[in-house]
Design goal:
By secondary structure, the protein is mostly helical. The chain has two domains: about 150 residues, Rossmann fold, CATH 3.40.50.720; about 110 residues, N-(1-d-carboxylethyl)-l-norvaline Dehydrogenase, domain 2, CATH 1.10.1040.10. It is built from 13 helices and eight strands. The strands form three sheets. Strands 3-4-5 form a three-stranded parallel β-sheet, sandwiched between helices. Helix 8 packs across helix 11. The protein is globular. The two termini are about 35 Å apart. The mean pLDDT is about 95.
């Protein structure tokens, strides 16, 4: 995700400095004009707006609190935008430390996957103060079609976990509908055509329906990541009937299908 998002900023004419814990992953974006920083500490000293896109709370802890982390640089006046899907708790914790140093922190997770990152059509939900949000909004709008402030620090993460809970419902619902139809003699390709032309049609349903029809479970959004997000949603109170069901399904599917796409939930359900 970070790579195509960085590409959008380069296309828009912004100078981009990157840091990746796996240095080989920087190569393609460096070839497009970005420069590299050796550590997060070096990065925050080289730029005014720092954008983070990593997988989980542990990675955030490392980026901020390691020996060469963002908080070790003792800078001030920077805007740190965490676009990762992480817990509201980690955002509130890190935001407090950033403010203590005289920096700003925004949690700004995105709705959308690699395709939307490549197209610059992500939806960005932001938690934090309005002043730094207005400062970086033009940057966020180069990566997404909508950037919306939804509350204080942590609120962006809450909104994202709510959306990803709905995403889990959508993936499991589509999988179960296709299994039901197929087991009663309906071709999955025919069912997805019907769905896509009905009031239930959606971009997600079309993309994932096509993936099922073509037996393509290569991860655009890995199943292990939605399982992680549902765990985070559970931590902040997800306990509704559908929420409990989808949480348990993805939790059980993660061990075998975690590295495949979210829609590989069909394979797990199919084998029960």
């Amino acid at each position: 995700m970070g790579n195509p998002m960085s590409q959008q900023l380069i296309k828009a004419g912004y100078p981009v400095t990157v840091y990746n814990r796996t240095k080989e992953k920087e190569e393609s974006i460096l070839a497009q004009g970005a420069v590299t920083a050796s550590t997060p500490s070096a990065l925050i000293q080289q730029t005014d707006v720092i954008i983070i896109m990593v997988s989980d709370d542990k990675a955030i802890e490392d980026i901020f609190y390691s020996d060469n982390g963002l908080l070790g640089a003792k800078t001030s006046g920077k805007v740190i935008v965490n676009m990762s899907t992480v817990s509201p708790a980690i955002s509130k914790k890190v935001a407090a430390k950033c403010i203590e140093q005289g920096n700003h922190y925004l949690d700004a997770p995105v709705s959308g996957s690699v395709k939307q990152a490549q197209e610059g059509t992500l939806v960005v939900m932001v938690g934090g103060d309005v002043t730094p949000f207005e400062q970086v909004k033009p940057i966020l709008e180069k990566m997404g079609k909508l950037a919306m402030l939804v509350g204080d620090n942590g609120a962006g993460n809450v909104a994202k976990l709510a959306i990803n809970t709905l995403l889990g419902f959508a993936a499991q619902g589509l999988a179960e509908a296709i299994i039901l139809a197929r087991n009663n003699g309906i071709d999955p390709a025919d069912l997805t055509t019907l769905i896509n032309n009905s009031a239930l049609g959606s971009v997600f349903g079309k993309i994932k329906g096509d993936a099922i029809v073509n037996d393509n479970y290569k991860a655009a959004f890995a199943l292990k990541l939605i399982a992680k997000d549902l765990r985070l949603a559970k931590d902040i109170g997800l306990s509704t009937p559908l929420g409990e069901t989808v949480y348990q399904t993805f939790k059980q599917a993660e061990a075998e299908y975690g590295n495949e796409d979210i829609i590989a939930i069909l394979k797990y359900i199919d084998h029960q």
